[in-house]
Write a structure and sequence with these properties.
alpha+beta, two-stranded antiparallel sheet, 4 helices
Length: 166
């Protein structure tokens, strides 16, 4: 029962904790930076198309001229320089660090929720025990009061000889 409730609270906390959301955004940003660094080695494809349509009576072939020119350019970075590799390694290290921070943040949030839940359970149990103790004390007082009224019990003290509850 308790583990089920804790698991439910943890799922809610993991979904709505601002610290965890912020850390996940940092990881996403870092992943995007790595993708940008890796994209430098991907080919760049450019396509350029131009067309000309001219209707002029002085031209041959019934006075029309149609021209279509296309150009396809493919660029590929075959050289991965040392600076690019260092940038990639640096971004990967930052990503690993961000993931470690996320795991630590999740662990802290889980510990915090468990502590709050167990404090709640302990307080609830203490209140229940206090209510039971109070009920027993009230019963003892009623019995003592009844015995004092009946005269079957007396209370002696050095300063007071007999005390009756009224």
């Amino acid at each position: 029962m308790a583990l089920c409730i804790i698991a439910e609270f943890l799922s809610i906390v993991m979904a709505h904790s601002p610290k965890i959301k912020e850390q996940e955004k940092n990881i996403e940003k870092q992943s995007e930076k790595i993708k940008q660094v890796l994209s430098r080695y991907q080919p760049n494809l450019k396509l350029k198309v131009e067309g000309v349509h001219d209707k002029d009576i002085e031209l041959a072939e019934k006075g029309t001229q149609d021209e279509l020119i296309g150009k396809l350019v493919l660029n590929w970075n075959f050289y991965s320089g040392g600076g690019d590799d260092l940038a990639l390694q640096k971004e990967r290290l930052f990503l690993i660090k961000e993931k470690e921070i996320l795991e630590k943040t999740k662990a802290d949030e889980i510990e915090k929720i468990k502590n709050i839940y167990f404090d709640y359970i302990n307080t609830k149990n203490r209140i229940a025990n206090l209510k039971k103790t109070l009920a027993m004390d009230i019963d003892i007082l009623k019995i003592t009061h009844q015995q004092l009224e009946d005269g079957s019990k007396t209370f002696f003290d050095e300063s007071i000889r007999f005390v009756a509850f009224e």
